[in-house]
Specification:
The chain is an alpha+beta fold and about 180 residues long. It has a single domain (about 35-175), classed as Ribosomal Protein S5, domain 2, CATH 3.30.230. Helices cover about 30% and strands about 20% of the residues. The protein has five helices and five strands. The protein has helices at about 95-105, 110-115, 135-150, 155-165, 170-175, and strands at about 40, 45-55, 60-75, 85, 120-125. The protein has a five-stranded mixed sheet with strand order 1-2-3-5-4, with helices on one face. Helix 1 (about 95-105) runs parallel beside helix 3. The radius of gyration is 16 Å and the shape is globular. The two termini are about 25 Å apart.
Length: about 180
């Protein structure tokens, strides 16, 4: 797939279009996510992103930088979509799993299925469930954003928000940050 410079729509950099001096540590089989989504981290075992909480203020909802869950994609041979760290929630009720299903339905992109046959999702929870901080919606939005980057999906922010709105009404807030 070809890359594009994102602007308001997010976007990604195709590894083949980056100058060598910008990304010498990556080989041509890995995906670079250092462009617009600077909160995505690449490690030896996969990728991770912070899913920030939000709180109500006088001017509306604001993102809390210090309070976040971490969503990681970790290398693993998986027979099906694998999600760890959310043991109290049945898989079918989990917003990350719902995001996975909706993203597959919307894009019909086999790269997503292929990616999650070799990676599992690991959630490190720091946002208390049902505390009103939007943790599950933030997790779903972060998952969608990370999948967009690692699978090089060409989707606008509005398309991501549309996908997210079918999960919960709060997901678009986190997609738009």
């Amino acid at each position: 797939m070809g890359g594009f410079a994102g602007g308001d729509e997010g976007g990604y950099w195709d590894i083949d279009t980056l100058p060598a001096s910008m990304d010498q540590q990556n080989d041509h089989t890995s995906k670079n996510t250092t462009g617009k989504n600077s909160n995505i981290e690449k490690t030896d075992t996969g990728y991770s992103i912070k899913a920030h909480a939000r709180v109500k203020s006088l001017s509306g909802w604001i993102r809390v930088e210090e309070l976040y869950d971490t969503i990681s994609f970790v290398s693993c041979k998986c027979e099906s979509f694998t999600l760890e760290g959310c043991d109290d929630i049945p898989l079918e009720s989990n917003t990350i799993y719902q995001a996975y299903l909706v993203l597959n339905d919307f894009t019909n992109d086999s790269d997503i299925l292929d990616y999650f046959s070799t990676h599992k999702v690991v959630v490190t929870k720091r946002i208390a469930p049902s505390a009103g901080f939007g943790g599950s919606s933030s997790d779903a939005a972060a998952f969608i954003g990370l999948v967009k980057e690692v699978c090089n999906l060409i989707l606008t922010t509005d398309e991501l928000a549309k996908i997210g709105s079918s999960i919960t009404p709060d997901v678009p807030f986190f997609i738009h940050n």
